[in-house]
Amino acid sequence: MPTGTPGGVGRRGHLQAVDSICVDINYNDTGAATGIATGKYLPIGGIIIGTDISVNTTFNAQTTNVLTIGINGTTANNIVATVSAATAAIVQNYAPTGTALGKLTADSQVYVKYSQTGTAATQGAATFIIKYIAVVS
Questions:
Q1: How far apart (Å, rounded) are the C-alpha atoms in residues 65 and 84?
Q2: Which of 41, 52, 110, 113 is a plausible cystine mate for 129, CB 3.0–4.6 Å?
Q3: pTM (predicted TM-score)
């Protein structure tokens, strides 16, 4: 029944099934070092059940190459707190931490971040896949 109130912005299917959001990050994306708002949202009531990371092209900063993702603003680290991006690989089933645990209490925007030290990277590309269930009450 229509209520005249628009729905949330989080991605929600009509079935209680596993859904996902994919987010790409490159070594030279504007704002990567301080956190990038992706414009993609997890829905209110959603429960994150895991995150996979595909490092498609290795990040090659001299000393460290760390990717993080979260819903905690530009800190971007409460879904995946740290993953090394120096080796091409698919890293599977990271469990969320902190405020990303349990049912989300609001539509939550996803943020990604790339931290590097040493000589700056000249390459790097990765994809995060956040798996969640949008709980319909």
A1: 6
A2: 52
A3: 0.85
Closest by CA to 91, choosing from 133, 56, 40, is: 56
| CATH class of the 18-134 domain in this structure | mainly beta
Domain ranges of the chain: 18-134
* 10-43 tens-digit pLDDT: 666 666 689 999 999 999 999 999 999 999 999 9
Q: 84 burial class (0-12, 13-18, 19+ CB within 10 angstroms)?
A: middle
What is the per-residue burial (b if ≥16 Cβ within 10 Å, else e) of 37-58? ebebbbbbbbbbebbbbbbeeb
What is the distance between the alpha carbons of residues 60 and 89, in angstroms, rounded to a whole number? 14
**CA pair distance 109, 116, nearest whole angstrom:** 24
- The CA angle 29-134-39, to the nearest 5 degrees, is 20
Among candidates 127, 9, 104, 110, which has minimal Cα distance to 49?
104
